[in-house]
């Protein structure tokens, strides 16, 4: 069995790596590009860490493993209230389990979505999101005590509550802790070792506003002070990678990947419920404008930035959860008179639409025989939707869910997935403009988001040096890693082996007649664990 190492940099993007490599500031990334294969790694839909990392671990699409977002929203519920997705949904059918069942040892360090940790043939330290320092984050449980201070979680609470200086310091500390943990765990050899750094995602979420002038929150003066933070952490990532490379033997293979890329939070929003109402497909409840709606309108049209900020600071704590909390109250829909409605994807620029089917939803209105025709009509019309301010088309693509997902959990997805152009995100309003500005305060708090373009680098025996990878997807990584290790690929995986990165003699793929299924898809998190994780996810804009 050939030894493989995987180092993940959550959200890392070539947008920042390539210029730094060209300037000689990321020598370890540069060496992997020259001596191995590299290219873009296309993420999942949605390109959010929950779905992405689980898809990586299983080699299966969300329709099979059941994870679409951090919160398990019920697409058929009118309340969008769901459990926190966690490892119990898919444990025992991951690459860690496959390698272990075939006799290999594994070590998983801070891989997202691995809480609670589960029994593997080796070690596991759970990754984001976790409720904190809990024994359930470690396998075996005694590992927590053995690691000591290095067992501390690599995640913060609500990052939005920190000053910029505090955010930088917190990320510095996190990077150091994670590097120390990796070095400690690599003191022992495993057949399959994987660790994921999260700093690369966090710097995009909170510092993109200092480098990208397309966002309304860009401030040249602040950019002068904080504009190099992202590059500085990419250089730190290169140093951390170098420490890992020093520990590899000549027969070892390393993959460096990210689960998605980074981009700004789109500054404009598409209120699909308003558009659906205009199409005669959604019925807002007949009522006067609420206080929240008047506040939203005031925030959008009248209130200066300083006054907006003052209002937010002086609102009661329960109302400070951003205007998002207020927006939810605006989604007042008469579902008994509605044929289709917006479903939150929480992953700009994606949005969902659900058909209100009679016999499927409690207040369904659309006859099952009319379902397909209505989906076709909505897809046709939404692709023609234009921004009234610019005249440009808003929607890039639109999919029926079965075009993206296959499996028993496909019904957890909305019926239609709308992929907007990159400067647009889903909006929550049921009344008001179809297209509007994202409130400044929301952009200021979390100026960065994701895109679908991650990174892939690979080096090792049998991998062709200097190869540029095209058409590689995150779902292909587990089949490719198993192939690299000399193991077969389970027949029920959706991904493919990236044979193009290997020498001719290494391209023959062996199928493995192994089908792994989880014991249960029940959540099994305590209410306290759920609440703690939800608070962390809110701080990142995921809920």
Model description:
The protein has 543 residues and is of the alpha/beta class. The chain has 2 domains: 4-264 and 450-539, Alkaline Phosphatase, subunit A (3-Layer(aba) Sandwich); 268-287 and 332-437, Gyrase A, domain 2, CATH 3.30.1360. It is built from 19 helices and 22 strands. Strands 7-6-5-8-1-9-19-2-20 form a 9-stranded mixed β-sheet, sandwiched between helices. It has a 4-stranded antiparallel β-sheet with strand order 12-13-15-14. A 3-stranded mixed β-sheet has the order 16-11-17, with no helix packed on it. Helix 7 runs antiparallel to helix 8 (199-207) and helix 8 (199-207) runs antiparallel to helix 10. The radius of gyration is 23 Å and the shape is globular. Residues 288-292 and 298-327 have low confidence and may be disordered.
Entry summary:
The chain is of the alpha/beta class and 543 residues long.
Q: How confident overall, as mean pLDDT?
A: 89
Q: What is the radius of gyration computed over CA atoms, rounded to a whole number of angstroms?
A: 23 Å
Count of spatially separate domains: 2
Number of DSSP strand runs: 22
Count every helix, treating DSSP H or I runs of 4 or more residues as helices: 19
Largest sheet: 9 strands, mixed
């Amino acid at each position: 069995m050939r030894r493989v190492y995987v180092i993940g940099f959550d959200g890392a993007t070539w947008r920042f790596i390539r210029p730094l490599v060209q300037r000689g500031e990321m020598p370890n990334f540069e060496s992997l590009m020259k001596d191995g294969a590299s290219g873009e790694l296309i993420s999942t839909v949605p390109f959010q860490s929950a779905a992405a990392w689980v898809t990586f671990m299983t080699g299966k699409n969300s329709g099979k493993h059941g994870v679409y977002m951090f919160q398990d929203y019920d697409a058929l519920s009118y309340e969008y209230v769901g459990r926190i997705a966690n490892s119990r949904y898919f444990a025992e059918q991951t690459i860690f389990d496959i390698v272990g069942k075939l006799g290999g040892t594994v070590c998983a360090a801070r891989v997202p979505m691995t809480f609670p940790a589960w029994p593997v043939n080796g070690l596991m330290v759970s990754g984001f999101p976790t409720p904190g320092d809990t024994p359930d984050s470690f396998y075996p449980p005694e590992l927590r005590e053995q690691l000591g201070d290095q067992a501390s979680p690599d995640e913060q609470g609500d990052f939005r509550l920190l000053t910029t200086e505090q955010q930088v310091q917190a990320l510095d500390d996190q990077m150091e802790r994670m590097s120390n943990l990796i070095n400690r765990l690599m003191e022992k050899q495993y057949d399959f070792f994987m660790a994921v750094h999260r700093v690369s995602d966090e710097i995009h979420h909170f510092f993109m506003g200092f480098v990208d002038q397309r966002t309304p929150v860009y401030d040249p003066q602040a950019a002068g002070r904080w504009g190099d933070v992202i590059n500085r952490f990419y250089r730190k990532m290169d140093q951390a990678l170098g420490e890992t490379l020093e520990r590899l033997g000549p027969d070892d293979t390393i993959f460096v990947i990210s689960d998605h890329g980074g981009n700004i939070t789109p500054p404009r929003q598409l209120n699909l419920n308003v558009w659906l109402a205009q199409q005669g497909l959604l019925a807002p409840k007949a009522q006067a404008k609420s206080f929240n709606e008047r506040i939203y309108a005031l925030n959008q049209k009248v209130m200066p930035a300083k006054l907006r900020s003052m209002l937010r600071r002086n609102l009661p704590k329960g109302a400070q959860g951003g205007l998002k909390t207020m927006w939810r109250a605006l989604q007042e829909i008469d579902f008994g008179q509605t044929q289709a409605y917006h479903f939150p994807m929480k992953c700009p620029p994606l949005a969902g639409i659900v058909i209100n089917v009679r016999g499927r939803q409690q207040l369904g209105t659309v006859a099952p025989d009319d379902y397909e025709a209505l989906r076709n009509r909505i897809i046709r019309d939404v692709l023609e939707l234009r921004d009234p301010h610019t005249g440009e088309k808003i929607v890039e693509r639109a999919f029926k869910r079965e075009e993206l997902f296959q499996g028993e959990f496909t019904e957890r997805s909305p019926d239609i997935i709308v992929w907007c152009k990159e400067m647009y995100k889903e909006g929550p309003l049921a009344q008001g403009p179809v297209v509007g500005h994202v409130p400044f305060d929301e952009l200021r708090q979390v100026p960065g988001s994701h895109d679908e373009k991650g990174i892939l680098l690979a080096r090792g025996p049998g991998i062709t040096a200097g190869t540029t990878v095209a058409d590689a997807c995150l779902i292909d990584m587990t089949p490719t890693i198993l192939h690299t290790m000399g193991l077969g690929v389970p027949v029920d995986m959706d991904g493919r082996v990236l044979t193009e990165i290997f020498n001719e003699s290494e391209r023959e793929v062996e199928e493995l007649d192994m089908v792994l299924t989880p014991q249960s898809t029940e959540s099994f998190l305590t209410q306290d664990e759920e609440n703690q994780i939800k608070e962390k996810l809110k701080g990142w804009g995921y809920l």
